[in-house]
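REQUEST FORM: STRUCTURE PREDICTION
Request ID: SP-0412
Submitted by: Lab K.M.
Chain count: 1
Length (residues): 804
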Amino acid sequence: MAGQRDPRMFGKLHRMSAKPVWLFLTLCHLVGEMAIWAELQNECLLANVRSCGDCILAGRRCAWCTLLNFTGPGEPTSVRCDLEERLGERGCPESFLERPKGLRRIDVDRPLSPRGRKLRPEHIVQLAPQQVTLKLRAGEPQTFEIRFRRAEDYPIDLYYLMDLSYSMKDDLENVKKLGTELQRRMEDVTSDFRIGFGAFVDKTVMPYVSTVPGKLRNPCGVQEEICSRPFGFRNVLPLTARSDRFNRLVGRQRVSGNLDSPEGGFDAIMQVAACKEKIGWRNVTRLLVFSTDAEFHSAGDGKLGGIVVPNDGRCHLNSGGVYTRSHLYDYPSVGQLAQQLGDRNIQSIFAVSHEFQHIYERLSELIPKSAVGVLSSNSSNVIQLIIDAYNALSSELVLENSKPPEGVSVTYTADCKHGQVFTGEAGRRCLNIQIGDEVKFHVKVQTRGCPANGNDVAMEIRPLGFNERLWLRLQFVCRCECQQSSQPSSPDCHFGNGSMECGACRCNEGRLGRECECSSDAVPITDMDASCHADNSSEVVCSGHGDCLCGECVCHGRENLGELLYGKYCECDNFSCDRTAGVMCGGNGVCDCSRCKCFDNFTGAACDCPVATDGCQSPDGETCSGRGTCVCGTCQCVESKYQGPKCELCPMCPEACQEHKDCVQCHMLKSDSQEMECDRCVVPVHRVPKLDSLDSCRVQDLRNCWIIFSFIGSGRNMSIVVQDKRECPAEPEVAAIVVGVVTGIVLAGLVLLLGWKVLTSLHDRREVAKFEKEKLTAKWDAGENPIYKSAITTIINPRYGGIQ
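STATUS: Completed
RESULT:
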C-alpha cells in the first residue's frame, strides 16, 4: 500500500550498508562464545576426579599436578586435574606434572615379498607388519600403517564339493574330467595347485531319504541303473597334486537319490571346513567350490526328522571319510558356516543352476569372501566359472579384525590403487588388486577407558581369504607412575590418617576431607552432605562453588583478585553482577550476592537506568511525543511504526509520504538543475536504481511523473532512498487511435449487414414453409371451384350471327 514500507527489505539494505561492522561484531561474539564453550567443555574439570588415575582417564589433554601444597584452603583434590597449560598458569612446575602418553611400537615387520620372484609358501610375505604393540590412553588415538602386496605364484588348494543327487547325473560326467583340465588352466596362475573332491546328498533319515530297504539299496528307482546308497557327506579325495587320481576316483562315483528338493549341503560344508587335517588344507589360498542344482537345508530343518541337537561345528569324519553324525546333529546355521569359513580363510564359490541363483546370491552376502556362478545344464562351463570366480575373489582385499574389548574402536582408511582413498566401512576394502600391486591401510585405534581387569588384550587383523595376519597387542594407560610410590600413613594426611599419593591424600576408611581431617564415624556422611545442600531438591554441593568439609561449605574464590564467594552454601559472590560498558553495576552501585544494589537516582539490573526523564522530553514538553514511555532515560515507543529518540518520527504512517514529498521533489529537480538548494530537508536523501513500488511512497511531480521513495533506518540513522527513474505517463498514439476507430466502424457495419442478411433469409424461409404447408392441407376439387359462379346474362353481338 502506498505510503508504507516493508521493514524486512529496508532492514536488509541497512545491514548491507553496515556489513563490515556487523562481521567484526559477529566475529568477536563467536570468539567469546568459543572461549566460554571451551571452558564449559573442559573434560578435566567436569570429571571431578579424586586421583591421578582418574584424571588421565578423564581426557587425553588432562594432566595431574603432584606438587604437595598446590591446593589452597577449601579447594578440592580435583583441582589438581586440569589442562597442562592451565596448571602451569596456576603455578605447577613442569617437573611436577604427571601426563603419561600412549605409544606405538612395531615389533615384527618382515618385508613384503619382492616382485618377480617365486618363493616357497613359507617364505612368502604379503602382509606387513606382522606384530604391533599399542599403548593406549583414553581419548588419545594411536595409528599405524598396514601394507599388502599380492605375491606371484601363490599356492592354491581347491576342494570340489558336489551334489550327487539324481538330478546331477549329467553334471557328474563333465566333472570326471575336471582335474586334468582345471590343473592345466590353473598353471597360468600358480605352479603349486592341489585339488580334492567330496560329495553329499542328505541326512539318511525320513523324510529326507526313503528308509525302505529297497530304496536304500537303489534310491533312484530305475531297475536298469544302479545308484549309490544315500549318504550325508563323503570325502572322496583329500587335496592332492595328482590330477589323474582326481579323474580316476571321481570317475567311479555314482549318483544317489533323496525325497525332498533341498539337499544337505550345509552339513558337507561344515565338515569340509572343520576337518582341516582330513581334507588336507595347507596355509595357502583355500577355495571351496560348491556345485548343486537345488536349495539347501539349514538349522531347524532337522526337527522334521526328529533331530534337535544343534550342530557342534566339529569334525566327524571316520577313517573312510564319511560323515557319521549326520543323523544326530541338526544342519548348521548360516552364521555358523560364515564363522567357520571365515576363521579358516576358505573362500567359497557357489556354482549353482540359474533357477536358484538368487537364493545363493543372498547367501553369499552373509558369507565373507564368496562368489556365485551359474552352471550350464550339464556343468560344462564349470572350469571357466571357477577361473572367473577365483580372479574376482583374489582381486578383492578386505581387512577384518577380531572383536575389540569394550570401549575400544578400530577404524580404517584405505589407500588403494590410482590414488583412491576410502574411509568408514569402505576403508576396510580395496578392489581390482592384481599380482604385484601394493595397497596401504591406515589403522586408528582409540579407547574410551580401561578394561575392567586392566590387563593387556591381544587382537588380530587379517585379510579375508589369505592365511596371513597381524597380531595387535593393546596395553592401557590406567595409572600414573607416581601411584607406584604411594606413602602409607603419611604425616601430611592428618597424623597418618591416609596415604600420600601423587601429592594428595588418599584417606583411610572412615576418614574424610582434603587432609583426612574429618571422621565419618562422628558425623554420618549423609548428614555431612545434607548440611551442604541449599535444599533437599538440590544435588549440587555448596552450590557448585565450594567443598563440603566436615559438614560445612568452604567456598572457593580468588581473594588476591578481590573475587569472593560467600554465604552458607557459597551461593553469593561479589563479581558476577551485570555490567555496563565493562563496568560492574555501571559504576552506579555495588555488587552484593550476585545482584547490583544501585545508588540513588539509578535503577535497573546493571544500575544503568537514570530515574530522571529529562532525556525523554520532546520540544513541546511532552514525554516521548505522547507516543511512548521513558525507560532508563530513553523513549520506548508504544508501536514499532514510531521512531526517533523522542518517538517524533513515523516513516510508516500514511502522512509520512506527504510530509517528505517536497524534500524528495527538490532532490529530484536538483539533479536537473545543480543550482537548487534543498535547505528544508532534514533527512538525508539517497538515490538507488530500483525500489519496490508496491511498498513505497508514490508522489507526482510538476510533469505528472511518479516519484517512488521510501525510508531506511530508524531514529537519527533514518534516511530516504529515491528511485532514480521516475515513472511518467506515455504520450497517446494518434495514428493508432484513428486506425482503431475506422477499423471499428467498418467492422460494426459489416456486422450489421451480416445480421440483416441473416434475418431476411430466415423470414423468407418461414414464408415458403408456411405456403407449402397450406398447399398440402387444401380440400377443394379442381372441377368444382366453390368460388366460381356462371354468368346470368347473355350478350350476343348482333353483328356476329352469321351475317355475311
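NOTES: The first helix runs from residue 7 to 17.
Reviewed by: T.R.
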